[in-house]
Structure formats: C-alpha cells, structure tokens
Write a structure and sequence with these properties.
The chain is of the alpha/beta class and 791 residues long. The protein contains 28 helices and 30 strands. α6 runs antiparallel to α7 and α18 packs parallel to α20. GO terms for molecular function: ATP binding; ATP-dependent peptidase activity; serine-type endopeptidase activity.
Length: 791
C-alpha cells in the first residue's frame, strides 16, 4: 500500500489560545507577567544560591544571549528581598590612620550613617577652625602667657644681676655681645683694661684677674644651664597651657559626637584617636606654618584639613534595600576601586580621601552581576575576583602594584570585609573552559543556573506566553495586541523553536518582533496591533536579511544552477540543504548524482576526495555504504564502484542529512530505474536504513517549494522527510494551503525503502529466506544485475 502524504493539519499548529478567557480580546485585558516564563530550573538554582550563606555559592548563569537571564534574576531579586532581617548592611568609610598615613583605616557604620558622620566631622572642623584662634586670642590667655613669660624673665634677670654684682666687686665686667654671647672683661677703674694697661700690671695682678675670670666663667656656665632649664620649663608650661586650652576647645566641640556615636565601636575609637591628633597638630588650626597649612587644606572639595576628612566609600540609601549592582564594563578599577592622584602647586600627592569605590564595594552585602566573557577579557580582573572571594576581603591595591610597577605614592588601605554574591552570565563554551582550565572555578561558583531555550507548548504555557507578550507591551508603552496577533506571535515562537510542541524562550526575538510590529501598526495609524501587522513586520525582518537567499534563487531563475523538477532521471535526486548566515537561514535544493562502474563495491565520495566534504558527511557516506553492503553484499562483494557527488557544489558540504538521498541515487544507478525529479528528499539514516531526524526541515521544504514556483508548479511535486521530523513542521501558510489543495505533497517516512518506492513508483521488495528479492521489485532488479556482473 503506497504511503499517503501528510495532511495540511500536520504542517502547522495554530495557536487556539484555549487557555485564555473568551472575554480576553487583547493584551489590555491580560495581567502582565512579572517573571520570566519557562525558566523554573534556573529560578530554583538562583533561589538556592541566594538562600545559602556559605562561602563559594556564587552563580554562573548559562544560556544564549537573549534568553532573559539578567531580566529573570533582576525580577527575582526585586520581588524576593533576600536581605530581610538576616543580614545587616553597612556604610563604609576611609579615614586617616594617624599612626601611619600610608595605611588608611576603614570605618564600618550602620547603613545610612556614613554621609551624616562625614557632615558631622566637617561641622566639627568648621567649629575648631573658628574656636582655636578665638581661644588663643583673648585677654585671659594673654595674661596667663605673660605671667609665665614674666616669671621666666624675673628669674633670668635676678640671677644675671647677682652675677654682675659679684663680678663688679672683683673688678670684672659682665657684658653681652651682639651675637648673644656673654663676655667677661677685666676693669681698670670704670674702664676696661686695654692691652697696654693690662700688660703694665704686675704678674700677680694679671694672674689674679685670670683666676677671677676663670671662676666667673665656671659660675656663668652654671647660670647658663639654669637659664636653659628655666626656658624649657617655661616652654613646657606654655605648651601645657596651650594643651589645656586646646583640650577645653576640642573636648567641648567633640563631646556631642562622642555621645552620638558611642555605640559605634569603630567611630568611637576613631574620635579618640582624632582627639589626640588634633592636640598634637594645633598649628594646623592656628596657621602658624603657612606651607604646612597650605598642604593641609589642599582639598578638592572643601576647605578643611585633609587629615580629618571622611571619605564615604559606600553609602546605603536604604538599610532595607538589597544592593544590586550590574557591571557593564568590568575593568580592574571599575570592580575593585582605585586611588586617584591630586596635584597641588606642582606636587603630585595622594591620600585616603582620594580612594574611589568599585562595584564590589557598592555590591557588598548584595549581588554583583557581570558578563563572564567581559570579565575574562580584561587583564587581572579574574584573578582579583577569585582572590577577593577566597579571602572574603576587599583589598584596594593599584593596578600598578598588581603588575609590579610602582605608582607615585603607594597606599595600603585596610581591607574591607566582603559579603557578596557574584552572578556571571555566559555561554556553555565559556563555562566548559573555566571548568576545564581553572580548578578554583568549581569551588567559587558552585551553583549553575541553566536557562532553557524552549518550553513545552500547551494551553497553560500559551496563556503564560500571552501574559509575557502583555508585559512587553506594557513595559514599552506599545499598542495593545488583539487576540489574533497574540496567536500569531505564539506561532512565530513555535517556529523559532523548530517544534510544534514547544515555544521559544528567546525573549529578545519576541521583544524585537513586537517593537517592529508596533512600528508597523503606528505607521498605518492603527489603534491596535493585528495579525496583519505581525505578518508585515516578519516580512520586513526577512527582507532586511535575505539578500543571499534572493541571490541563490536568482540562479535558479537564470538557469545557472541546474535543477529538474518535472521529469525522471537515473542516478539523480534532488536533495535539500540549509544555508546559514549570521542572522538568517534558508533552504535550497541541490542535485546529487551517482554513477557506477565495474569495481569492488566502494562508494567513492568525490566531495571527500576534493576536500570539500566534512567529517559528518563522510560518516554518512560510510553508513550508507554499510547499508548497501548489508543488503546486496551478504554473500559476495558488490561488483560496482559508485561515484557520488553534489553537483555545482563549490563551498563545501557537511552533515549527514543527504544520506537517504544518496542511497536513492545509488539504488537508481544500480537498477537503472529513473527517479522522480519533482520530489526532493532530506534525512539521514542508520546502517539499517531507518530514517533519522535532521535540522532545518521547515527551511528545506520552503526552499524546494520556492524553486518549484520558479521552475513551474505541477501537482505531483513534493518533499520527503523523516517521520521523526513531523513535529518540527511549522511551515509557511502558502505551503499549507498548497498541500490542502493537493498542489504539493509532503511524505513522512520511517525507512529509506519507503523513499525509494515513492521515487520509482515500484515496490522495494521483501527479502526471501534464501536472501533473494522478488524479480519485479526494485531490490530484485538490483540483485539480478549485480549477480549478472558477478558471473
């Protein structure tokens, strides 16, 4: 019994939208979907990773671009607040380390307090800048300072007067030189001795003067030591006076801050250190040293001493808001932060106030999302990320230090504790490379969120998909889609999935189609998107990318590519192939021919010999050779050598989807029976002749249908496909209509013998017990010719 072609209802599955309420006429009546449809597996993985707090449970999200990976994760994080009461967020600030300015300290403050603390310190500095000069510029301070100075002067004067009087009584004058040194001179009455008058003295008198002066010098040196001690005591008393006044000023100004932040341990300790440091650096506020003060105030934003600034690195606007950071350009500096340099009066310098946050700082306590390929492309980023996740600390070091180059001034800021979830988005190839070449990857990214490419198609999923379409419409402020437009988009999604029973989850394709459909509808002044607008948008999409298809089809119009779609021919069959560009696929038929010559049974693959055939195609030829040998060479070798080729193929051939077509051509060459040229075939086969599914079945059928239109249609034209590909059929409507009218046929076969029967119109034959086939069958005719050659 001949095999019947498929009916038109098998070629296209219409979206009946049985899951939608009959009252729903458009997306206006649908509740937009607030989650990504069909990604339950990936969503469960994300939920698990976000719930577990242990180290290493970061996420690698796998899937093609356009599946909505980032959108799904963002919607989940925004809808299910992982923070709750289980984790506290903090503000992070850098401040000066007064003991070692090269190692700035980090302050941990409750969320939202960072900027207020910075402002409190600025206000404190403003008060001190005004209060210090006032405290040291008043009568009380001056009187206390003058009293100390007078005490010193009185003691100095009394001691020197006593020495002077004692010297005068012994005939020696005490005077001070212009250089400030003390000088002892022997007196001749009221005048100092000259050299002549001193020489005129007796030796005893001269010796007496020398002894007296020596004694006075010893006494003077003791007095000078006392004067130095008294000056030191005065300096200490003056400093103590200044410190007492400074303590009063600082203590008065800072006590409110100490009370306000007494429960924040880091701030409490910092205020104590700052209190001590201010007392040691009063001159900054009193402007005693102009150069030092100038550098102290060399700020980029406010006029206050740099050493007392607060650098708020991370400020949480809302302590209950879960930090979510998306890093679009994951360079070393953008992730880990960096330290700027400032120039003041030609001098380049840096300090803690020039430390800038990276995305890891901002995401601390939350989630950081990045593209895996971009992370791996940037130097040192991947190693730095692993180091931070292993240590659970965020060390801010310059890139120059990472590459062993020294910067201008090197800082070593205190590390910040890191508690963050990293989500990398990437494809399977990148995931496999990391798994294979980086042993640390498995330890740091223990959760894989695997995103599906498609989902089962049923009434429930169609209803979800309709709501997904409604969400795109609402989010982008588009015209609403009517019921037929929704159905057509769902059918388009099924076509994208290459399966009647599935829907594509490539949300970017659906969103792009909707945008273009909305444009078409608005351009025609429509108030709602209808199915005709969807069709027009799809035609516009195809028109933009189908230049190569038009060029190939033109070769059939001009006869450049030889193809017969009307007659019969021996050893010749029309096969179907798919030609792909970066964003478009289309089918085009090609002619396969087989010739035979006396030989030892080999199938000579011309494509392989010419290095135009790929490995998979060569495997297909070997399989069909094994099939032919199993049918016709069980007792003796096949006495024919077969030459097999794709005619007018110059760009290479790969894949095994032509193996059934090649078998049909070879059987025709063996038997001499002509094959119908108005039928094309696609499908691979195994060694038992069973038809196996292939890809691109819709494009292949459409390609042959179009060529038949170019060459001239006849009622017998059609295509043979594997039965296992029937569920992949989502053909163009013109082909469905042609099949329903009997103008085109599509046969679905399970074995290559069925294809041979359709091509030749003769039965293949069933093998008898002795291994012979009936003589009036195709295989019987082949067998008789081969036996004749063997004899």
């Amino acid at each position: 019994m001949p095999l019947a072609p498929l009916t038109s209802d098998k070629l296209y599955r219409i979206a009946a939208l049985n899951g939608l309420n009959d009252a729903c006429k458009s997306t206006k009546h649908l509740t937009p979907l607030d989650e990504i449809v069909g990604q339950e597996r990936a969503q469960h993985a994300v939920e698990f990773a976000m719930s577990i707090k242990e180290k290493g449970y970061n996420i690698y999200a796998i899937g093609r671009n356009g599946l909505g990976k980032r959108t799904m994760v963002m919607r989940y994080l925004n809808r299910h607040e992982p923070n709750g009461n289980s984790h506290t967020l903090y503000d992070w600030c850098y401040v000066s380390n007064f003991g070692d300015t090269r190692c700035p300290k980090v302050l941990k403050l409750p969320a939202g307090d960072g900027c207020s603390f910075k402002k409190d310190i600025e206000n404190l500095m403003k008060r001190l800048v005004k209060a210090f000069p006032l405290a040291f510029d008043n009568e009380l301070y001056y009187s206390r300072a003058e009293k100390l100075k007078a005490e010193l002067a009185t003691k100095q004067e009394t001691t020197l007067k006593s020495l002077t009087k004692s010297a005068e009584e012994r005939g020696v004058s005490v005077s001070i030189t212009t250089q400030g040194d003390y000088q002892l001179v022997a007196m001749n009455g009221k005048e100092p001795h000259s050299e002549d008058s001193f020489a005129a003295l007796s030796a005893e008198d001269q010796q007496l003067f020398e002894n007296t002066i020596n004694d006075l010098e010893v006494e003077l040196r003791g007095i000078v030591r006392k004067l130095t001690e008294w000056e030191e005591q005065y300096s200490n008393k003056q400093q103590k006076l200044d410190e007492n006044i400074a303590q009063e000023v600082v203590g008065h100004c800072i006590k409110d801050l100490q009370l306000k932040y007494k429960k924040v341990a880091d701030v409490k300790a910092y205020l104590a250190d700052m209190y001590t440091d201010i007392l040691e650096n009063i001159d900054i506020f009193l402007e005693e040293n102009e150069e030092q003060v100038a550098l102290a105030y060399a700020s980029l934003d406010k006029k206050m001493p740099r050493r007392y600034q607060v650098n708020v690195l991370v400020h949480q606007l809302d302590e209950r808001k879960f930090p979510i950071e998306v890093e679009e350009s994951p360079s070393y500096h953008s992730i880990f932060g960096y330290i700027e340099n400032a120039t003041y009066k030609g001098t380049v310098f840096t300090d803690f106030s020039l430390i800038r946050a990276g995305s890891l700082h901002r995401a601390n306590g939350g989630v950081l999302m990045m593209d895996a390929v971009k992370v791996l492309e940037r130097p040192y980023v991947w190693d730095g990320l692993k180091r931070a996740l292993r240590a659970q600390k965020l060390n801010l070091s310059s890139l120059e230090r990472e590459v062993t180059l020294s910067g201008t001034i090197s800082l070593e800021p205190e590390a910040i504790p890191l508690n963050v979830k990293i989500i990398l988005f990437g494809d399977y190839q990148t995931y496999q490379l990391l798994q294979h070449y980086d042993p640390e990857f498995k330890e740091l990214f223990r959760v894989t969120a695997d995103f599906e490419d498609d989902m089962p198609r049923n009434d429930t999923s169609e209803e979800q998909y309709a709501r997904f379409i409604a969400s795109i419409v609402h989010d982008n402020d588009m015209l609403h889609c009517d019921r037929k437009a929704i159905a057509r988009i769902i059918e388009y999604s099924s076509r994208q999935a290459d399966d009647q029973n599935k829907l594509s989850l490539h949300s970017a394709d659906i969103a792009n189609l909707l945008r273009e459909t909305n444009y078409v509808a608005r351009a025609s002044n429509a108030t709602m998107i209808r199915s005709s607008h969807v069709e027009q948008a799809m035609l516009n999409q195809e028109l933009r990318v189908s230049r190569l298809k038009d060029h190939v089809m033109q070769s059939f119009v001009t006869g450049t590519t030889l193809l017969d779609v009307h007659t019969h021919a021996v050893g010749q069959v029309n096969a179907l192939s798919v030609i792909s560009t970066s964003d478009y696929q289309f089918g085009a038929p090609s002619r396969i021919t087989a010739t035979t010559a006396y030989g030892s049974g080999e199938v000579f693959d011309i494509e392989r010999s010419a290095e135009l055939g790929g490995n998979i195609h060569s495997k297909g030829v070997m399989i069909l050779s094994a099939y032919l040998a199993s049918v016709f060479g069980k007792t003796a070798k096949i006495p024919l050598t077969t030459h097999l080729t794709f005619e007018q193929s110059y760009g290479g051939v790969d894949g095994d989807s032509a193996s059934m077509a090649e078998v049909c051509a070879i059987i025709s060459a063996f038997s001499g029976l002509p094959l119908r040229q108005d039928i094309a075939i696609t499908g691979s086969m195994n060694q038992f002749g069973e038809a196996q599914p292939i890809g691109g079945v819709n494009q292949k059928i459409e390609g042959f249908f179009d060529v038949c239109g170019i060459k001239g249609r006849t009622e017998g034209q059609g295509v043979i496909i594997p039965e296992s590909n029937v569920h992949n059929l989502m053909l163009r409507k013109d082909i469905v209509e042609a099949v329903s009218k009997g103008e085109f046929q599509i046969w679905a076969i399970s074995h290559v013998s069925q294809a041979i029967e359709i091509f030749t119109g003769n039965a293949v034959g069933i093998e008898a017990e002795q291994g012979f086939y009936p003589s009036d069958t195709v295989f019987g005719l082949v067998q008789s010719k081969l036996n004749a050659l063997r004899r």
